[in-house]
Amino acid sequence: MKDSQPDASTICFGLSETADRTSLAVFLQLYGRPEFSKEFSGRLSAEEITDLVEHLTKLLRRHLSETEYHDLFLCRRHKE
């Protein structure tokens, strides 16, 4: 079953931790849409790209196991 399209009107940060987590999930889905990510990445400087990748990679390492990183983020089965 395919996930439904993210609804930007549901994004609302600052009300509660639960609302923030739900809003962040929608935000990340919108951020990852191919048409947006291609356009946005083309506007970033080399320094901004490096900073963003370093920050996101740091969070991935902090919050995902190696198996989760491969399975959830890369969408590939991790060979143990």
- In terms of quaternary structure, what is this? single chain
Q: Radius of gyration over alpha carbons?
A: 15 Å
Beta fraction: under 5%
Shape: globular
Going by helix content, strand content and strand pairing, the class is: mainly alpha
Mean pLDDT: 92
Distance between the termini: 28 Å
String of helices and strands: HHHH
Number of strands: 0
Helix content: 55-70%
Number of distinct helices? 4
- Major β-sheet profile: none
Number of domains: 2
Which parts are unreliable, with pLDDT below 50 for 5 consecutive residues or more? none
Explain the layout of strands and helices.
Layout: H1 17-31, H2 34-41, H3 46-63, H4 66-73
Structure description:
The protein has helices at 17-31, 34-41, 46-63, 66-73. The chain is mainly alpha-helical and 80 residues long. The protein folds into two domains: 1-43, no CATH class; 45-79, no CATH class. The longest helix is centred in the C-terminal third of the chain and has 18 residues, at 46-63. It is globular, with a radius of gyration of 15 Å. The chain starts with 16 loop residues before the first helix and ends in a 7-residue tail after the last helix.
Key traits:
80 residues, mainly alpha, 2 domains
Brief digest:
The chain has 80 residues and is mainly alpha-helical. It has helices at residues 17-31, 34-41, 46-63, 66-73.
